[in-house]
Amino acid sequence: MAAPAFVAKLNEQLGLEFGAHQQYVAIATYYDALTMPQMAALFYQQAVEERDHAMMMVQYLLDADEVPIIPALAAPRVDFADVIEPVAAALAQEKRVTQEINELTRIARENNDYASDQFMQWFIKEQVEEIAKMSDLLAVVTRSKDDYERIEDWIAREDKGADRDPTAPPIAGA
């Protein structure tokens, strides 16, 4: 049984994960409209990852005999001033999610909820990777803001995509 405080906070986290999914779709379509297919593909893949994170949390709640509460979401931001702004927004979003993941871990530990603490460890590792990826990308788009092809070339060269992590929690419905 998961601690009630953890369950409540994890249900809140579902909104952040699904919101991140929608925001990444909006960012991907922004880059798609600029004919930047590498950037678009990167953010479409990020959107899938965020959806998968939410569905991992849904599965955990179901496995803990809890009812997931899927929240309504605010519309994502769709207007950006330049190619830098969406990446800066993505980095800020990843930092916020990291704070929330750390808070979930704190709640699990304070409630001696060892199973939930263990569940959160994968997400902590994932957030380290996500912040590093978005930080690097922000440096590249800032440096090359007027040269879309240079940004696209960097993505094509450096972004290897993500293989399914065998240590990842199960995804509901997968």
Q: What kind of sheet is the major sheet?
A: none
Radius of gyration: 17 Å
End-to-end distance? 23 Å
Structural class: mainly alpha
Give the topology, please.
Layout: H1 4-33, H2 37-63, H3 84-110, H4 114-143, H5 148-158
Helix pairs in contact: 1-2, 1-3, 2-5, 3-4
Describe the structure.
- By secondary structure, the chain is mostly helical.
- It has five helices and no strands.
- Helix 1 runs antiparallel to helix 3, helix 2 packs across helix 5 and helix 3 packs antiparallel against helix 4.
- The longest helix is centred in the N-terminal third of the chain and has 30 residues.
Brief summary:
This protein has helices at 4-33, 37-63, 84-110, 114-143, 148-158. The protein is mainly alpha-helical and 174 residues long. The longest helix has 30 residues, at 4-33.
Keyword list:
single chain; mainly alpha
